[in-house]
Amino acid sequence: MISNLEKERLGYTPILLDVFKGQPGDNAEMFELMGAARFRNGKTDKKTLRSIKNICVILSGGPASGGHNVICGIFDAVQKAKSESVIYGSIAGPGGLVEGNLKQVTANLVNKYRNHGGFDMLGTGRTKLDKEEQFESIIKVCAKKDINVIFVIGGDDSNTNAAIMDDYFKSKGADISVIGVPKTIDGDLKNKNIEITFGFDSATKMYSETIGNIENDAASSRKYYHFIRVMGRSASHIALECALQCQPNITLISEEIKAKKMNLDSIAKYIADIVKKRKEAGLKHGVCLVPEGIIEFIDDINALIKELNTILAGNAGMSKEEICSKLTAKSQKAFASIPETYQDQLLSKRDPHGNVQVSSVESEKIIAEKVKQKLNDPDFDYQTHFLGYEGRCGFPTNFDCTYTYNLGFCAYYLALFNKSGYICFIKDVGEKIKEWKAGGIPLNSMITTENRNGVKKKVIEKALVDLEGKPFKKFESNRESFALSDQYVYPGPIQFTDVKEFNIPITLKLES
Ligand code: FBP
User: Fold this and answer.
1) 181: confidence class by pLDDT, cuts 50, 70, 90
2) Which domain holds residue 268?
3) Residue 498 falls inside a structural domain
4) 434 and 342 within one domain
């Protein structure tokens, strides 16, 4: 059974960019602009286009609303090209392709998932691709299924997989193109061409609805401080966007905390001072946003995590005492500064890419508890919330539906125009849709090296909140008034009514 809204959303038709209309070659040509491949209206000799055999699509990493529409875009692009390519989906992320666990993406299947949230059409996973055996296995699976194009729909780690896989194929002369598609609710895979990752708009609107509701409860009940942690593994883009949308009293921005070298104690003092001032003004309630990734940006805790990563990488199964004995004195002190109930959360196993699973670290509770200790005021009472997984799979906004559908076309066109090792983009999305531009950039132009699991690895660098950028500056210039008086905004649920212009994120508007 499907809900009424599901039925209605199936009927939404995303607008297709002009450049992707008609048969490929009839209406589009590629040109190079400042290191990027770009499409514009024009004609291309069809004989110069790649002969695409079969295709594999991979949904990779955390889900993000709009992923299914990327696949719908690829599917429809194949139909428009009057191609006989079969599209296979890799089951449960990159691991499916390594193991040959594939599912055919048919018209019936895509038609069930148009404008639909989640990644459940194929499932997703975080398998790290960096071993020769994995790549050799993929080459065999591709040969068996006659696949010569792989689309990786993912975030920084997944597109790092795509870059490394492409390098391997090129070094072995394997004729398989790899194209990435920028996804992640975290919004941290961006640059001058990739202005936004898909899923960010839908997730921040879903979180903002709830934050607005909690703000209203705070202002109604007038007795609690609400500490709300919002997802975002590393960067604070989600917290900043929600802060601009809902105007809570306090929002912590991890990048600023790092720049100011703040530790847990100074963060607690900053919040406690605001609580005291509000109490003097007769306000005993408030709302504080905490970005999920904060823990890795707190000066002494970051050093502690780095040490823990190295210790845990080589010594699974050690007791807490043994681990602590291997820490430097400074890190032992930082570990002790975390309320004991939450210390084990830093010792939990790392993800396949060597990341601490910050979604399991209850930083909102750690901070709330520290503030309580600092205030020592019986009037201070708090509630905590984690807005995480519920933001990743909801119905995509009209913006995300349209953006992803075009990303699907763009990815297919890049492969068709003989690109490999590229990530697609649609830019100028703050403008009217007829101004949107499509293209791709080499994945390798985004690669750097980072310490993961104690080993130096190639990775795509995360784009953090720019403290000199307009979104942060706007927040900074308003935060004192947000703190001392209530200027809550209640955005309410996502609206799906058709609009001439998309209601894009405030941070994106300010950056455009
Ligand atoms: P991606 O970067 O893969 O899109 O994932 C983002 C994210 O939703 C983070 O916000 C969160 O910390 C993480 O995934 C949670 O991962 P998991 O699903 O493995 O618990």
Assistant:
1) very high
2) 203-389+466-489+504-511
3) no
4) no
pTM of the model: 0.95
219: its two tokens: 């202002």
Of residues 140, 147, 23, 25, the one with CA closest to residue 85: 147
* CATH assignment at residue 211: 3.40.50.460
- 6-19 average pLDDT score: 95
pLDDT, position 453: 64
Catalytic residue among 157, 166, 186, 400: 186
Tokens of 392: 């990743």
**Nearest CA residue ID for atom 20, ligand 1:** 359
- Give yes or no: residues 347 and 454 share one domain: no
Q: How far apart are CA 58 and CA 125, in angstroms?
A: 9
pLDDT at 393 over 90: yes
What pLDDT is attached to residue 188? 96
The tokens for 453 are 């699991």
**What is the tens place of the pLDDT at every residue in 426-462?**
999 999 999 999 999 999 999 998 776 667 788 999 9
112 within a domain of the structure (yes/no): yes
> Cβ(231) to ligand 1 under 6 A?
yes
- Cβ–ligand 1 distance for 188 under 6 Å, the answer no
What integer best gives the mean pLDDT of the chain?
Answer: 94
Characterize 477-510 residue by residue with b for buried, 16 or more Cβ atoms within 10 angstroms of its Cβ, and e for exposed.
Answer: eebeebbeebebebbeebebeeeeebebbbbbeb
**Residue 500, pLDDT score:** 64
Round to whole Å and give the CA distance between 229 and 171.
44
* Mutation pick for ligand 1 pocket among 231, 345, 393 (CB with most ligand atoms within 8 Å): 231
156 is catalytic: no
pLDDT band for 499, please (50, 70, 90 cuts). low
Specify whether 209 is located in the same domain as 297: yes
Q: Do residues 228 and 362 touch, judged by C-beta distance below 8 A?
A: no
- Same domain flag for 10 and 85: yes
pLDDT number for residue 321:
87
**Under 8 Å CB-to-CB from 145, ≥6 apart: which residues?**
54, 56, 86, 88, 102
Q: How far apart are CA 264 and CA 333, in angstroms?
A: 12
